[in-house]
Design goal:
This protein is mainly α. About 75% of the residues lie in helices and about 0% in strands. It is elongated and about 60 Å long. About 35% of the residues are buried.
């Protein structure tokens, strides 16, 4: 076993230890997680609003149970895929502590990636049981798909959304190597995410031209795609091409992150960061 382990590349051998460290750090700051979870209440607010609107009928095929399932699934996906590595990267760039990561034998992005994985795992331990309980109490479980193929597609959609959220958050964090106002870019990004990802309103409620524009951008693949699959808005024939498109966005975001990082680190080193 040890021989097989020693044959692995260093970045892979270090992964279990880094994951444990990230999990311990997440546990140490568990109070912050509780505050963050309580602050992500917008799906509940939108659910209350849309439930009031649909008391006398349906909107674009959504009745009250459908809205309940949609917003509970939205909350679940957001907890499982959200990433805020941008804040840590910007802080380390401004304070110069990024230099400590650069002199280590492992790529700094690998540290950020594993810490994000640990954070997501810890967050899911708290959020998933609570959201599952909410599904039961609100009677939304019956609106979820049960087909194993679609459940598998939903899982792939969540994984793809996690990769997109992490890489794009890290890419915007990397902009801190170029500009002082990278946090302002993040604020703009989050604003667009809220509008175009299906987080506040299902994209099916948009005017056709706006829905078409939204689906041509990466935002729905960060959030609404797995939600729509989970709640039966797509059958298998429609889900698979959308997952392929999500994979294309993920590949592009990884390429963008690596390009920005490679050039940005040269600037950081040149200025004595």
């Amino acid at each position: 076993m040890s021989a097989a382990r020693s044959s692995l590349p260093p970045w892979l051998r270090a992964a279990p230890a880094l994951l444990r460290i990230g999990l311990l750090e997440a546990f140490a700051y568990r109070a912050e997680f509780i505050v963050w979870m309580l602050s992500t209440t917008m799906p509940f607010i939108m659910l209350a609003l849309m439930s009031a609107v649909t008391r006398e009928g349906t909107i674009a095929g959504f009745d009250q149970p459908a809205f309940t399932a949609y917003y509970m699934a939205t909350l679940l996906v957001r907890h499982l895929t959200g990433s805020w590595v941008v804040w840590q990267m910007v802080m380390e760039i401004r304070q110069g502590t990024l230099a400590l990561k650069l002199v280590r034998p492992l790529h700094p992005l690998w540290f950020y990636f594993l810490e994000a994985v640990s954070t997501t795992f810890f967050r899911s331990l708290i959020s998933v049981p609570l959201i599952a309980l909410a599904f039961v109490l609100l009677g939304a479980g019956g609106s979820l798909v049960t087909d194993p193929a679609l459940l598998g597609c939903a899982a792939l959609g969540i994984a793809g959304a996690w990769i997109l959220n992490f890489t794009l958050s890290a890419a915007i964090g990397t902009l801190g190597l170029y500009i002082e106002s990278s946090v302002a870019v993040w604020d703009l990004w989050i604003g667009c995410f809220m509008i175009f990802s299906g987080y506040l309103l299902p994209i099916e409620l948009f005017p056709p031209w706006l829905a078409s524009a939204a689906r041509s951008m990466p935002f729905p693949y960060l959030q609404s795609l797995p939600v729509e699959i989970m709640t039966g808005r797509h059958d298998l024939a429609h889900a698979l091409p959308l997952l392929l498109r999500q994979a294309g966005w993920a590949a592009g975001s990884i390429a963008l992150l690596l390009l920005l990082w490679r050039r940005g680190v040269r600037r950081f080193a040149a200025y004595g960061g």
